[in-house]
């Protein structure tokens, strides 16, 4: 993904796109969604709604999918980043499935820090000499695209 996306989805739409049924999606728990501002040009460093899910385990059987829609900043800032460092959201906003297990910053997150990101579409750029032409990638029927993602927790010096 190039680093720009469109996301104007509300929490219920995100939850529905990520697999929750209508009733569960309409009453999904949200965390800090007041930080999210719908945009046609979301870039790393912007807030996006993400679905962090887990399955309730009952004995040895896996139960229903549950979780919450959290508002998180796009672009990984590893938890081991110094609090006084200025975060660079562009540095690690794109974990590639074919190499995520090879990179320590991503590998350690794979077992427990996974989530889903739903957007209406994203932009790719085609270079033609010195010109760049944006192309909007989306489903014709308007349904959201869902991406697998990794997250970490980090607080800057101001909290």
From TrEMBL:
<keyword id="KW-0190">Covalent protein-DNA linkage</keyword>
<keyword id="KW-0238">DNA-binding</keyword>
<dbReference type="InterPro" id="IPR036590">
    <property type="entry name" value="SRAP-like"/>
</dbReference>
<dbReference type="GO" id="GO:0003677">
    <property type="term" value="F:DNA binding"/>
</dbReference>
<dbReference type="GO" id="GO:0016829">
    <property type="term" value="F:lyase activity"/>
</dbReference>
<comment type="similarity">
    <text>Belongs to the SOS response-associated peptidase family.</text>
</comment>
<dbReference type="InterPro" id="IPR003738">
    <property type="entry name" value="SRAP"/>
</dbReference>
<dbReference type="GO" id="GO:0008233">
    <property type="term" value="F:peptidase activity"/>
</dbReference>
<keyword id="KW-0645">Protease</keyword>
<keyword id="KW-0456">Lyase</keyword>
<keyword id="KW-0227">DNA damage</keyword>
<dbReference type="GO" id="GO:0006974">
    <property type="term" value="P:DNA damage response"/>
</dbReference>
<dbReference type="Pfam" id="PF02586">
    <property type="entry name" value="SRAP"/>
</dbReference>
<protein>
    <recommendedName>
        <fullName>Embryonic stem cell-specific 5-hydroxymethylcytosine-binding protein</fullName>
    </recommendedName>
</protein>
<keyword id="KW-0378">Hydrolase</keyword>
<dbReference type="GO" id="GO:0006508">
    <property type="term" value="P:proteolysis"/>
</dbReference>
């Amino acid at each position: 993904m190039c680093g720009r996306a469109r996301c104007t989805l509300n929490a219920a739409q995100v939850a529905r796109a990520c697999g929750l049924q209508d009733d569960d999606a309409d009453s999904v728990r949200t965390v800090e969604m007041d930080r999210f501002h719908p945009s046609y040009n979301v870039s790393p460093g912007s807030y996006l709604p993400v679905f962090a899910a887990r399955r309730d385990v009952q004995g040895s059987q896996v139960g229903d999918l549950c979780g919450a829609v959290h508002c998180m900043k796009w672009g990984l800032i590893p938890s081991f980043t110094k609090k006084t460092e200025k975060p660079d959201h562009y540095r690690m906003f794109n974990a590639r499935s074919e190499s995520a297990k090879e990179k320590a910053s991503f590998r350690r997150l794979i077992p427990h820090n996974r989530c889903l990101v739903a957007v209406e579409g994203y932009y790719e750029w085609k270079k033609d000499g010195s010109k760049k032409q944006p192309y909007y990638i989306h489903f014709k029927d308007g349904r959201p695209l869902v991406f697998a993602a990794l997250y970490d927790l980090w607080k800057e010096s101001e909290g």
